[in-house]
Amino acid sequence: RAPQWLSALERLETRLARAHVEARKVQQRESSDEVLQRARAVGTSFGRALEKVIDGTPGCTAGALTLEEELTEFATAAAKGLCGSGTVLPAQDATSAAADLFALFGSVEGYARYLKDEVHVPCADMKLNGG
Question: What's this model's pTM, rounded to 2 decimal places?
Fold first, then answer.
């Protein structure tokens, strides 16, 4: 009876050790430094993407969108998990971050309105071609 009891305790200890390692990994992923690093990566990615949008083809209206239309398309793609960037920004994190951002403003439209009216993003109502 004692060997079975010891064997059960060893299995329990192994499971607890694995759970402890997993909890440490979660803690590291969710540390403030890690969250800040991911937010910076998102900002850098957004900045690079914005440059491509702004550098569009002059005079070309094919695919031209207003800022709100572009944000709506982005929100749709993010919700489908299509906006990750490898291990730097997993698609699930991008989906969650986009949803959180738009929720802060009530909707995608609310965020677009904020960018237009408060931040004064130039040409927000103009259809631009992102190339």
Answer: 0.53
